[in-house]
Amino acid sequence: LPNKIKNICCIGAGYVGGPTMAVIAQKCPEIKVTVVDINVQRIADWNDESLDNLPIYEPGLKEVVLEARGRNLFFSTNVDNAINEAEMVFISVNTPTKKYGVGKGMAADLKYVELCARNIAKVSTSDKIVVEKSTLPVRTAESIKTILDAEGKDIQFKVLSNPEFLAEGTAIDDLHNGDRVLIGGDQDEDGLNAIQCLIDIYSHWLPRERIITTNVWSSELSKLTANAFLAQRVSSINAISALCEQTGANVDEIANAIGADSRIGSKFLKASVGFGGSCFQKDILNLVYIARSYGLEEVADYWEQVIKLNDYQKRRFAEKIVQNLFNTVNGKKIAILGWAFKKDTNDTRESAAIYVADYLLNEQAELVVYDPKVKAEQIYADLDYLNTRSEEQNKHLVTVVRDAYEAMGDTHAVAILTEWDEFKSYDWEKVYNGMKKPAFVFDGRNIIDKQQIEDIGFKSYNLGRE
Ligand code: NAD
Ligand code: UGA
């Protein structure tokens, strides 16, 4: 097995593969890093002269790509070549929820990961360390190893688990200053050597004590567990927000008060219209599926409740809009501020905005959407994907604009669904003057000062406030 890494290949140039490999290349200039993908357009975008056309938006990403691209960071569609050249191959492809067959709607679909493993087995002519970067069910490494070895070639493969903990919108900072990196591997001599190769890479910029090593299964399961715990905090505070609205307690004051207890901690306690993103829901569903498959019903039910509460919160917010607008939004114009699942990203996967918008469209509202980073095609694609109504109807009922004031002009209500910073600094007096009266603000992120907005004349609904 290799003990010095000179060439890395990463399969999958998405939200994880792209930024992660860009940072490895930036910090390890002596290693050639090639990121490959079957999506030709995506690779072309990563190679685009103008760094403003990179396929994903992340603060700080442009600068890292500028520093490393063409020096030791390459993006390519020549998958086989890059695999063959590398001593270490990362698998960073998507692992979405299965949409068919056994485990439909719950289990992770591992077909892309399996295709990668088969391809590595087929084209490799030298020993390789294969690293699971994608989020995978516990014990996937076993299947990968079986597939890798099945070609019966006279070469060795070692599988490591190295889950990624970056969050979108802060990916570069998380990669540069992560709380920890986790590496799982076999605890025999070859396994420990492979682990050391990966430690050597991260040690280029992270202190050794932040690199945690475990066995493979702990590492795989830690990733699902970390996301489940994070999502559970959001569902917990969102559950309390509903209770606050009935009792006169204020959810932000509660978050502050409980967060001061160092055992609880203050982060990740922001009440919201519901968590979104490509991973929380998918990973918890996967965890629930795994628990059920081992007959652990109570464990499965426990974690499933995190998802149910999140669905409830999205629905509850949409219902509040309709109730406050005198129980009908038919023909009313509502501005949607924010479509991304959180600020500072153009990613809309599982965004709460999609579900709130769909609910309002079912009530025959007209929507005008503004998001600083999400393109109109994406917004229509997200709605069309739900299949609730025809593409023509979505086009007819939803307008997407590039200017926030234009979005809010002449509307009955504004719904804030993403916590973009720019929303806080709008001239709300000007917005109020341009709206139909009574003018409503529904703040799904609690980012606007309620008092200030009510002083202007708005009627406002805030999560977790009476
Ligand atoms: P993504 O959809 O953005 O990117 C995956 C890429 O893999 C796509 O560009 C796709 O074309 C490519 N691909 C699929 N099959 C391929 C194949 N056989 N050969 C070459 N390329 C192939 O996904 P992502 O958000 O980067 O997530 C990847 C994995 O990382 C998932 O398992 C996810 O759970 C995990 N993860 C994601 C995040 C996040 O913030 N998005 C964070 C941590 C972990
Ligand atoms: C999350 C985890 O934070 C990462 O550690 C993990 O690597 C990643 O999932 C993954 O596996 O994909 P991400 O989904 O990018 O990262 O973003 P988060 O910051 O975790 O936010 C997720 C959702 O929860 C967003 O919709 C956000 O608005 C919401 N949220 C978050 C709240 O509603 N309240 C909070 O206090 C925090």
TrEMBL record:
Enzyme class: oxidoreductase
Pathway: Nucleotide-sugar biosynthesis; UDP-alpha-D-glucuronate biosynthesis; UDP-alpha-D-glucuronate from UDP-alpha-D-glucose: step 1/1
Residue ranges constituting the UDP-glucose/GDP-mannose dehydrogenase C-terminal domain according to the UniProt record: 335-450
Keyword Oxidoreductase: yes
Keywords, alphabetical: NAD, Oxidoreductase
EC number: 1.1.1.22
InterPro entries (UniProt xref): 6-PGluconate_DH-like_C_sf, NAD(P)-bd_dom_sf, UDP-Glc/GDP-Man, UDP-Glc/GDP-Man_DH_C, UDP-Glc/GDP-Man_DH_C_sf, UDP-Glc/GDP-Man_DH_dimer, UDP-Glc/GDP-Man_DH_N, UDPglc_DH_euk
Keyword Oxidoreductase: yes
Reaction(s) catalysed by this chain's protein: UDP-alpha-D-glucose + 2 NAD(+) + H2O = UDP-alpha-D-glucuronate + 2 NADH + 3 H(+)
PANTHER family: UDP-GLUCOSE 6-DEHYDROGENASE (PTHR11374:SF3), UDP-GLUCOSE DEHYDROGENASE/UDP-MANNAC DEHYDROGENASE (PTHR11374)
UniProt record similarity statement: Belongs to the UDP-glucose/GDP-mannose dehydrogenase family.
Protein name: UDP-glucose 6-dehydrogenase
Organism whose genome encodes this protein: Carboxylicivirga mesophila
